[in-house]
Amino acid sequence: MKITDVKPFPVWVGQRNQLLVKVETDAGISGWGESGLSGRELAVAGAVRHYREFLIGRNPMRAGALWQEMYRSQYFEGGRVLTAAISALDIALHDIKGKALKVPVYQLLGGKHRDFIPTMATTKGPLGPDMIQQAKDLLANGWICMRLSSDQMGIGKDNLFEPRESIAATAEWFIKTRASVGRKAVLGVDYHHRLSVAEAASFLQMMPSGTLDFIEEPIRDESPEAYETLRKLTPVPFAIGEEFPSKWAFLPYVEKGLTNYARVDICNVGGFTEAMKVAGWCEAHYIDLLPHNPLGPICTAASVHLGAAVPNFSWLETWKNPWDAQDRHDDARIFPVMMKFEKAHFVVPDGPGLGVEVNEAALNEPFRPWEAPHLHRRDGSYTNW
After folding, report:
1. Domains in the chain and their CATH numbers?
2. How far apart are CA 295 and CA 167, in angstroms?
3. 112, 195, 305, 377: least CB-packed within 10 angstroms?
C-alpha cells in the first residue's frame, strides 16, 4: 500500500476554523487527521503541503518511521507549526492502519484499558449565581470533574483584561461554589496563561485550602523556572501541557514534578506516536493525562482512543454540557459518524480506525480569517489571550 495524495482542508466548522487532513492510498483506504494550532491553520496547511512532497509513494503503515522522517528532515527542528502538521498526518496514518487491519486504533496502541472515557466539562458562566447553578447541573448530569468560569472581564467585547480585578472576583465566587457543591465535585479553573507568578500565587492564596483541585495554565510555559517558583508558593495541583509540541517540551515539567495533570493535545504534540511516549513517561512519574480537546470530532476521536489505551488517565475535556443543544464544534453534515456520547462520557468505539466519517463534499465552507482576542490592560499595553 502506498500514499497517493495528502490533502489539507482549512475550513470553517461551527464557530471556528478547523484544519482537517486527508491521506489517500492506492488501496482505496483513506485516513483523516486534525491539526491543533487554532488560529494559524494556513501556516500548518503550508507545512502539510511541504510534507506531501515526499510522503506520496511511501508506505502509510510505517507511521513511526514517517514521524521520525518528518521531524528530522529539516534543520530547524520542532516548533508548533511543524508538529501540528505532523500530528494531523500521524493521526491520519493510524486511521489508515486501523482500517487496513480492521481494528480500532486503540488496538494498535496495546488495547483498551477502559470501556468509556469520562469527561471534564466547563461552566459557561457568567461568574456568579449562574455559574454555581451550572456546576450543580453538571453534577446532576453525571459530571464529577469541571472547570469553573473565571472573571472574563471584557474578553470578546472590548478585550479589556486586568488580572488583579479578575482574580479577586473569581476567588470570591469559587469559595461560594465549593460551599454549594460540596466535596464530591472536582473543581478546576483555566486561567489561560493570563497571570504572572505573583498574580497566580495571590489568586490561589485568596481561597481556603481545598477550594480548587487544580489550576490550568496559570502562567505561560516558556519558563519552567517560573513554574518552579510558583510551585513553592502554592500546594494546588497544576494542569499543564496543552501547548507543548513534543516530548521534549514536556521534559522539565514531568521530570521536575511541575505538572500534576498532563494536558497533552494529540493534535499538537505529534499525534499518537508522540502522545503514547508522553503517556508512558507520565505514568512513570504518577501523572495522569487530562487531554486538551478544544477542536472537532477527529481530535475528540483520537483523544478517546488515546484515553482508552493508557492506564494513567483522568478525564477528557469536552464542550458538551446539559444546556447547549449541540457541541459548537460538531456538524453532522460534515461528520455523519462521530464518537457516541452518553452520561458525561464517550463510549469507546469498536469499529476499525478512528470511528469518524467525514463527508468531504461538505467541506465547502470557506476559510475565514479569525483572530483570538487581543487583550489589553487599561494603560493600553497588551497581555496574553
Report:
1. 3-106 (3.30.390.10), 110-350 (3.20.20.120)
2. 27
3. 377
